[in-house]
User: What shape does this take?
Amino acid sequence: MDSKLQLDLTVNGERRSVAVYPMARLLDVLREDLGLPGTKEGCGEGECGACSVLMDGQLVNSCLVPAVQAQGAELVTIEGLALGGELNPLQRAFVACNGAQCGFCTPGMVLASVDLLRRCAHPSEAEIREGLAGNICRCTGYVKIVDAVQGVRP
Amino acid sequence: MRGQVPDCAVQVPGSLQEALEILAREPGRWRPLAGGTDLMVPFAAGRLADTRFLSLQRLDVLRAVEPDPEGITFGALVTYTQLRQHPYVQRHLPNLAQSARVTGAVAIQNRGTLGGNLVNGSPAADTPPSLLAYAAQVELTGLGGARWVPVDAFHTGYKQTVMAPDELLTRIRVPRPEPGFHFYRKVGTRAAQAVAKVCLAAYVRVEAGMVREFRVGLGSVAPVPMRARAAEAVILGQSVDRLPLAEARAALMEEISPIDDIRSTARYRRIVAGNVLVQALMELDEALSRC
Assistant: This one.
């Protein structure tokens, strides 16, 4: 039996420290150890994007990141977007365009969209589809999600 | 499912020397772990026998990208995102940029590494066909020193490589190709995320109407990523006006050894691989006639 690791993170702007196993998945650390269940597990294999979070400014699948590799990282999860209970402009666009149906893919879809819009302020439809290609939605058919990303007003 | 997590140990060496010492002390015991995009999948599913990992995350020396007049050297930890965004890669190695672009999607590309794509040893990996078409080499480093191996000789069997248990793949060297024709095509179920059914990368250099250089790298059609040497031999030295397309296609279909699996059938792969080669040569013809 090997010992746990003291993992120091900045999560949604807040410093957190938690004792976890080094090979625990970042996804489980977020949901179970840090009490942030907004990040979802879909496939657990890096295919569906439901577990997407931003780690040091980059979009990652948190199911594929071992805790040890998140040491010192700055994370943004879906809980970090709506500050003070106020949805951010992208989230409002998802609501306005019906970009969410069952909602399970939505946290990952929104984080992937945040990442895309940071890299490319006015993406074309093709750029949106490529930016969100790693996020699978079984409800919407994607059209309304693309509409939401295109329709975001800051 | 994740019962093995508490039983695992991870070392995080701060230098390459320290990493190599750990490997040399207990060869084969510590599994190198780079971006995790391959290893974490079987690990989380309980299908990975390893419980001791050597996380390479602090080895920043392996993140360097160093272009020079003769070519470019990538550290093994260079990610797909770095590859596809690098101006040198976009300009001189478009097949490599394209293969990085079609590997997974953004989140995978941010974490997955070029070295990992090679060491993982999958015959369906997306970058090896491009590296083969560009005659790339890999550097394997142990405590005793480093050796360079052509990518063509790196994979020896399904998920097997020439890398010794006390070695790390440290760098990838790609010579700068002369101006020529580059072709990359991955055939998968969908454009994003899918594992290739067939992948083909080609580089062609034509001089005075004759094919002077021609290399074809293939994925998903054999136990290892492979060069299509028989098809190359058919085309090399030929006049571009009379390329023996049918003969090259037949040679390629003969030299590959695809299998039936969950993604495709041997028959489909064999036919499509031959067709994609013909497509590459026809596009070469179109590119030349535009000049």
Chain B has a mean pLDDT of 96. Chain B is about 35% helix and 25% strand.
